[in-house]
Amino acid sequence: MSSNEICLLLGATGVGKTLLLKRLQNILSVGTNLTDLTLKRKKKVTVRELGGCMGPIWPSYFEDCSSVIFMVDSANISQVSSSCIQLLTVLSAEPLHSVSVLILFNKKDMPCTMTLTEIKSLFRMDDIIASATQPITTLELSACTGQGLQDVLSWLESITVNDSSL
Q1: Residue 17 assigned to a binding site
Q2: Of 74, 98, 110, 164, which sits most exposed with the smallest number of CB within 10 A?
Q3: Is 108 annotated as contributing to ligand binding?
Q4: Which residues are listed for Mg(2+) binding in this entry (predicted)?
């Protein structure tokens, strides 16, 4: 792995990708470059947020990618099926067959959100994890309140530490 790892941040429009980056930036007290995060062990991770369009994600985006964060809006049931299709497309991309994947179910603070059990069932998450070639982690998050942000940072730390020679 290079000294600066690339993490793709993907998901539909309005799931909270930009807010997640801003919250992580505040926790880490980094400068104004929203995409570069320096973790505890001085490992730099560049998080590339790809727009919210549910269109195709071109293979060139996957070059040099060492991890993927895929965000889902747990309060938007009408978006679940398209998010699931996009996730399956990402997981089946050849360049991503061995990268670590974090699936974030965001907006757990909303009163109308689905439970983690409900959304995992709709996604058939157990089947996805069982058939994927990548290590997959799932977490709940509220980018708005900050609940779960430390778990995201811990995941980023764990995958960069495991992939580095520190």
Answers
A1: yes
A2: 98
A3: yes
A4: 18, 29
The residues, ordered by sequence, that sit 6+ positions from 144 with a Cβ below 8 Å of its Cβ are 16, 19, 107, 109
13 labelled as ligand-binding? yes
Q: Is 91 helix (H, G, I), strand (E, B) or coil?
A: helix
Averaged pLDDT, 26-52: 65
Q: Give the total number of structural domains in the chain.
A: 1
> Would you say 15 is a known binding-site residue?
yes
Report whether pLDDT(79) > 80.
yes
120 annotated to bind ligand: no
Sign of CA dihedral 19, 76, 93, 136: positive
Residue 76 known to bind ligand: no
Q: Is 132 annotated as a binding residue?
A: no
Non-local (6+) Cβ contacts of 126 within 8 A are 120
- Cα separation, 91 vs 60, whole angstroms: 15
Share of the chain above pLDDT 90, in %: 25
Mean pLDDT, residues 109-128 taken together? 86
User: For residue 36, what is the domain's CATH number?
Assistant: 3.40.50.300
pTM for the full predicted model = 0.84
Task: Extract the runs of DSSP E, i.e. beta strands, from 29-141.
Answer: 36-38, 44-49, 65-73, 100-106, 136-140
For residue 133 the two structure tokens come to 């070639």
Pairing assessment for the beta strands 4-11 and 44-49 based on DSSP bridges: parallel
